[in-house]
Write a structure and sequence with these properties.
The complex is a heterotrimer of chains A (about 425), B (about 300) and C (about 170). Chain A is an all-alpha fold and about 425 residues long. Chain A is globular. Chain A has 17 helices and two strands. In chain B, a hairpin with a 5-residue loop joins β4 and β5. The longest helix of chain B has 29 residues. In chain B, α1 packs antiparallel against α7. Chain B is α+β, with helices and mostly antiparallel strands and about 300 residues long. Chain C is globular and about 60 Å long. In chain C, about 20% of the residues are buried. The chains are: A mainly alpha (about 425), B alpha+beta (about 300), C mainly alpha (about 170). The interface between B and C is large, with 48 and 38 residues.
């Protein structure tokens, strides 16, 4: 795409086709204003797409096999380890990293910080796609995915934490779709939907905060069902839900910084000046929020250790692993974010963001897979689980990229 | 917010609250005995397992297989080589999708014959599986059995995470109808009609006694009292995780023969209750709190608006 | 189900065995029929041999009801005098169906736990016999006392009904 842009091509960013006296057709908009052959050519030239081709070549047959042969064929799911990579990565890691939706919505719409607006839509999109694909991962993992709506309409078990997660994710997806309707409306040329959503935006935002607080916390609370199974350093009866909620704050924001960094590097042709010029300043602003959330998280983690008197565990092998996660994934990014804010250094903030995302990922994977059943043998996911997980995540990236290419997320739609 | 006026704000706030409340059928259903625990139905039945009497003949396994219509086992039920089988990580045999109960053998120092332990669902008084199921697939019947409805199971497998005894098995090999598999205390075919489970009746050596849980506890304690040098002075299941319907007596310390003695007496739900209590708090406080933040943050803009 | 059929069969046979009072040595033919649900053949029980082996100490099997005082702690505390009862047979005290509603109802409210909590007939036989046999080198294997029937082979999935070897349950 960079080559095409350099040769003077301007991708679609208005309703009217310049110099043609008519609106773009949907097909033309989807092809970014390129001819189909030009579009295919740039697709095939992109080395990332070759990697994707390999991932799909391996992943699609394995995914089909998972449904045809059952979970036993595709996973190492056992009676001791019922959950594997699909939930460990797809649900537990992806959901906190998708918290950017409610964070940016709250910042811009509720707190009125319009200076963050250029990055708001990217935050909302990150949130929507993350949750949507978390549901896809869930469908891959469920034994009977066609019964997904059972907890909502067929047989309700309201006392269960997962019930809350199910309802909230469903409702929150609707909220996030609604929050992205303005961007879609601009692209498609709809007028009424955008107006309707704009009138509800505060309500949607508050709903988003409520839902996010509870379901981010609920994912943590799931582990309170298994007090003896999760290693004490990662488990806290009193604070588990808060660990997960608080870490989702900097998780979502850090993921947003990671994505905006990747956008700036690989999709610069799609970003407009408003986005690019304000990105560093917004990054520093977000870094402030992240470092505050990180120190809160650190304090609560230490409090949890004190609360259950778990200091002795720090001296064990597990303790070393825990300290690694805390130092590399929490303390280091916290310091780097603070330094970045002080020195007005957006690049340093981005490094910190990558580290924070890494920290969230290993924390959730520890809770779900590694430090789970710490007194039993260690389970390693089946290679087919990896194949499917990589493929679904690659699809998430593909959809993400597809939306960023087209909808006015990284750029402003030029109203006539 | 330029075009936000008070009327619009209240409407949106109510909408937000309504939306949140609509999503909030996630409030926990409070137990009738509000503050405390459930403690089980008063006349529920139970089974007392005296492990000192078990000879490891596996007749109970065979009886369960027949009663529940389970598939044929991998090895005959009178094949004692199963006791030498080891799974992943040195773990002993356990219940599976086609074996709702298994017997395990433990060589104990100083005991001239091995101890045999029958393992199956303990039918807890406040089951963790029931607590964790979001489609309400589990029920605790008044007779004491914890039964399961496979027609609503979505296969999320949270119950397997929740059970402190690692009891529920799952039929992973099925593509069309994988469901949880566990002992149901022969509820459908026997317990409902007041009859003991098949394993209890089949046991040749009277290892298991069937009766009202409270009577069995009295019997268990009397047995210990009558033979103080023989039995460990503890009835496993009396209090563990809120109490179970299957109770155990042993002459060897329980932790040496595969029992988890660190479970504590609190039912699993008590660990989750703290978070569940958060839910209504957030649902009621957050709307007002964040609406307040919004008003605070935008007061300057609102003031400018009023002035102009 | 196999059990129901076996109970009727066992009960019928035991009823047939109900003999009028006679001195211990003359217990007829000594067949203790199976109450498994015909999983096993009848037991060939030599009562005379046991009387001789135990030197006429009836209390070793019959507790305190055959006229000999017992040393079992649970009984002796009350039954220091051992009175011979009209029917000292095992089945007269140990129920065929110890957990039936009727039996549980009957035992409810009995203050003496040793009377309330009695093993059923099948358990009484096994507990009674196996303990001594283990100590004194008697038969301890299941089929040492009673051979398995065809039904038994089906029940235990053994013999002619054994599963094909080499098939293992892959999932743990």
């Amino acid at each position: 795409m960079n080559n095409i842009i350099e040769s003077g091509f301007h991708p679609v960013d208005t309703l009217e086709k310049p110099g043609a006296n008519r609106a773009w057709t949907v097909k033309e908009k989807l092809l970014l204003g390129l001819s189909p052959s030009d579009y295919m050519a740039q697709l095939l030239r992109n080395p990332f797409n070759w990697l994707l081709a390999i991932i799909y070549a391996v992943g699609i047959p394995v995914l089909v096999g998972r449904f045809y042969n059952g979970l036993g064929w595709a996973t190492h799911g056992s009676y001791e380890y019922p959950w594997g990579l699909f939930l460990g990565w797809g649900l537990f890691v992806m959901v906190p990293l998708s918290a950017s939706g409610f964070m940016m919505g709250t910042t811009v719409e509720l707190f009125g910080r319009k200076d963050f607006k250029p990055l708001e839509r990217l935050g909302l999109l990150n949130g929507l796609l993350g949750y949507f694909f978390a549901v896809i991962f869930l469908q891959v993992d469920l034994g009977q995915p066609w019964r997904l709506v059972y907890p909502m309409f067929v047989s309700l078990g309201p006392a269960a934490v997962l019930f809350l997660v199910a309802w909230h994710v469903a409702t929150y997806l609707s909220v996030q779709i609604a929050e992205l309707v303005p961007a879609a409306s601009e692209f498609m040329g709809w007028v009424k939907p955008k107006k309707m959503v704009k009138s509800m935006v505060l309500g949607l935002t508050i709903a988003g905060i409520i839902l996010s607080t509870l379901h981010q916390g609920a994912l943590g609370a799931l582990f309170t069902y298994a007090p003896g199974k999760l290693h004490p350093l990662w488990y806290s009866a009193a604070f588990q839900w808060f660990h997960f909620f608080c870490s989702s704050i900097f998780g979502g924001l850090s993921m947003l910084l990671v994505v905006s960094t990747l956008a700036k590097k690989f999709l610069a042709w799609r970003c407009d000046d408003t986005f690019l010029d304000s990105l560093d300043k917004i990054t520093i602003g977000i870094a402030k929020g992240c470092s505050l959330a990180l120190i809160t998280y650190l304090v609560i983690k230490v409090t949890a250790l004190a609360h259950d008197n778990e200091w002795a565990y720090l001296l064990t092998g597990w303790g070393q692993w825990y300290l690694f996660e805390m130092i590399v994934g929490v303390v280091l990014p916290m310091i780097l974010f603070a330094m970045a804010v002080r020195g007005n250094n957006a690049s340093l903030a981005r490094v910190a963001a990558f580290l924070a995302v890494f920290g969230i990922a290993i924390n959730r994977l520890n809770c779900a897979l590694v430090a789970f059943n710490w007194q039993l043998y260690q389970e390693v996911p089946h290679w087919r689980e990896f194949a499917i997980a990589v493929m679904v995540y690659a699809t998430y990236i593909v959809v993400y990229r597809g939306v960023l290419y087209r909808l006015p997320i990284l750029y402003g739609w030029k109203e006539d | 917010m330029k075009n936000m006026n008070r009327r619009k704000f209240i409407t949106n706030g109510v909408a937000a609250g309504g939306l949140a409340v609509a999503a909030a059928t996630s409030r926990p259903t409070e137990a009738k005995a509000a503050a405390g625990t459930f403690g089980g139905y008063p006349d529920s039945m139970g089974v007392l397992v005296d492990m000192t009497k078990c000879i490891g003949c596996r007749t109970c396994e065979a009886a369960c297989n027949e009663e529940q219509g389970l598939p044929a086992p991998d090895k005959p039920f009178d094949d004692m080589s199963v006791y030498d089988e080891e799974r992943h990580g040195g773990l002993p045999r356990r219940t599976t999708a086609k074996a709702y109960t298994v017997v395990n053998k433990y060589e104990v120092a100083g005991r001239d014959h091995p101890l045999f332990r029958k393992f199956q669902c303990n039918h807890c008084q406040e089951p963790a599986c029931l607590t964790s199921c979001f489609v309400n697939a589990y029920s605790k019947t008044p007779e004491g059995a914890v039964v399961y409805d496979p027609t609503v199971c979505v296969g999320c497998r949270t119950c397997m995470v929740a059970c402190p005894f690692y009891v529920p098995a799952y039929s992973y090999e099925s593509a069309i109808n994988p469901v949880v598999k566990k002992c149901i205390m022969c509820y459908d075919t026997r317990l409902k009609f007041g009859r003991p489970p098949a394993c209890v009746e089949a046991c040749p050596n009277g290892v298991m006694t069937f009766g009202k849980r409270k009577d069995l506890l009295a019997q268990a304690h009397k047995t210990i009292e009558n033979n103080p040098e023989k039995y460990v002075k503890h009835v496993y299941g009396e209090h563990e995780v809120g109490g179970t319907s299957w109770l155990y007596l042993s002459d060897v310390p329980f932790e040496e023969v595969g029992f988890d003695t660190h479970l504590g007496n609190a039912p699993i739900i008590s660990y989750v209750k703290d978070f569940l209590a958060m839910v209504p708090m957030v649902l009621t406080i957050w709307p007002a709190l964040f609406a307040g933040f919004h008003l605070l943050s935008t007061r300057k803009a609102a003031a400018d608006n009023d002035k102009s | 189900m196999g059990f129901k059929k076996g109970k009727i069969l066992g009960l019928a046979t035991l009823m047939a065995l109900a003999l009028p009072l006679s001195p211990p040595q003359a217990l007829a033919e000594g067949q203790l029929n199976d109450i498994h649900g015909n999983l096993y053949e009848a037991v060939e029980f030599d009562h005379d041999m046991h009387i001789e082996l135990l030197q006429e100490d009836c209390s070793k099997c019959h507790h305190h009801v055959a006229g000999v005082a017992t040393s079992q702690r649970g009984c002796a505390s009350c039954h220091r005098q051992a009175v011979e009862v009209p029917d000292p047979s095992c089945k007269s005290c140990h129920s065929l169906e110890p957990f039936s509603a009727a039996e549980l109802g009957r035992t409810e409210g009995i203050p003496f736990i040793n009377h309330r909590v009695k093993p059923g007939l099948k358990a009484a036989y096994h507990q009674g016999c196996l303990g001594c046999h283990q100590e004194m080198g008697g038969p301890v294997g299941c089929q040492d006392c009673h051979a398995m029937t065809e039904n038994g082979e089906k029940f235990y999935h053994t013999g002619a009904h054994a599963p094909a070897p080499g098939k293992t349950d892959k999932h743990h």
